[in-house]
Inverse folding.
């Protein structure tokens, strides 16, 4: 699948949720957007907006959802200290259930499929032909506290003399004062 096919599919998804009746409307993404905007304006007096909080597992889904909100003149936001994967929006419930969320799911699915195919193709061409998942193996046997498993033995190049990684060694802070050797100054009263 190339980008042109993906874009065409995404436009058809939007036309589907706009309720387009003719083939010309299905092709025209702008016309579909106008239909959805008109439906949203009709819903506002009957169904007042409520605040939704949506958290996404990846940045791609968040970007798609945020762009979709902006496409319909909705303002995505998040509160101070909320994660970057969280999107807040105020929108009528019926619009979310009937149009926004189903459209997002279809668009996100199409985009996810496309990104998966591109990733597989690039990994196979550049890194390795076998891009399958890691093999599932049985869990290792539990070892008692007296034995050290081979997999936990440390080998750290260039640090054999000290016996541990460099960052675990205590370093002296030059700004730290020495205790006990400082003389107290007398105050004159």
């Amino acid at each position: 699948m190339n980008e042109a096919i993906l874009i065409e599919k995404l436009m058809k998804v939007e036309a589907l949720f706009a309720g387009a009746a003719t083939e010309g409307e299905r092709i025209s993404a702008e016309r579909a957007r106008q239909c959805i905007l008109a439906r949203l304006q009709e819903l506002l007096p009957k169904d007042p907006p409520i605040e939704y909080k949506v958290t996404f597992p990846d940045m791609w889904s968040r970007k798609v959802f945020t762009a979709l909100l902006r496409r319909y003149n909705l303002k995505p936001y998040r509160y101070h200290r909320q994660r970057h994967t969280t999107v807040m929006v105020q929108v009528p419930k019926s619009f979310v259930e009937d149009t926004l969320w189903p459209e997002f799911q279809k668009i996100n699915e199409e985009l996810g499929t496309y990104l998966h195919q591109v990733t597989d193709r690039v990994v196979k061409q550049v890194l390795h032909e076998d891009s399958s998942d890691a093999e599932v193996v049985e869990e290792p046997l539990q070892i008692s506290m007296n034995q050290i498993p081979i997999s936990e033995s440390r080998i750290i190049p260039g640090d054999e003399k000290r016996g541990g990684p460099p960052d675990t060694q205590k370093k002296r802070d030059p700004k730290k004062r020495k205790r006990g050797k400082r003389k107290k100054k007398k105050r004159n009263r």
In short: Helices lie at 3-18, 23-27, 29-46, 59-71, 93-126.
